Amino acid sequence: MAIVTGGASGIGEATCRRLVAEGATVVIADIDGERAASVAAELGRAASAVQFDAADVTSIESLVLCTIERFGHLDVLHNNAALTSPALHAKDTNAIDIGFDTWDLIFAANVRGYLAGCKYALPTMIRQGSGAIVNTASTGAFSGDITRMAYTVSKAAIIGLTRQIATHHGKQGIRCNAVAPGLVMSPGARAAVPDVIQVMQRHLLTPEIGEPDDLAALVCFLASEEARYINGQTYIADGGMLAHNPAMA
Ligand code: NAD
């Protein structure tokens, strides 16, 4: 039984598709309830959709607790939803110009939202003696990003959150790891950074830009028993972008 937030599009959607193909039951949780329902309908009886808002802790509490009540257990939580709208992106500028309302909103969804998912999932996972949490961070957490301020800092916070959950709850059977995508051709990325896609492609150490399923494969591995000796880690999947200095390419 898995909950995937931001499951109606991109990396989250690809993860839902993979989890179902691997035999899991999935709750596709997204602010876009219609799109989540349409993905769930395509995936059949193993999937259902729940509308929620990652910036609203009450809606996260209800998502997690209602799922546990319905299924009786929770094996996997993929905290993946993040605010990616181009309108918000345009306000997420730099330390001088950014409004505190923009900062707070981005942190509410991208950081507090992930914490809330963990907060409400952990008691059940601890009772079970097992549970895997996979958080979606970003390579921006490692390199800085001239185009986005709060988003980049929020993704660095996710790496700290991931270590903290593993540190506090690893002995209770909880594994918490993160994935850090570089550019991945999701609908969100196409809308948010259309102008940098070609530039970035030149600097990859792979022939092609990554697809959402490249990340879904990593998420599903980290969520699986095959990753039972991995905890508190962050895995970069970025086509090698951070492995070299683009200025020397
Ligand atoms: P996407 O836009 O394709 O999908 C994101 C999904 O999250 C959408 O279905 C959207 O409706 C949902 N969502 C947005 N705000 C929400 C909210 N407040 N509550 C609930 N759901 C909400 O994006 P993606 O590229 O697949 O991004 C998934 C994750 O990967 C995000 O955490 C993003 O920061 C991270 N990421 C993506 C890339 C990339 O290049 N695609 C790179 C680095 C990190």
From TrEMBL:
UniProt cross-references to Pfam families, sorted A to Z: adh_short_C2
A molecular-function term among this protein's GO annotations: oxidoreductase activity
Keywords: Oxidoreductase
Origin: domain of life: Bacteria
CDD domains: SDR_c (cd05233)
Gene3D superfamilies: NAD(P)-binding Rossmann-like Domain
Listed SUPFAM superfamilies: NAD(P)-binding Rossmann-fold domains
InterPro entries: NAD(P)-bd_dom_sf, Sc_DH/Rdtase_CS, SDR_fam
Family: Belongs to the short-chain dehydrogenases/reductases (SDR) family.
Name assigned to this protein: SDR family oxidoreductase
Organism of derivation: Pelomonas aquatica
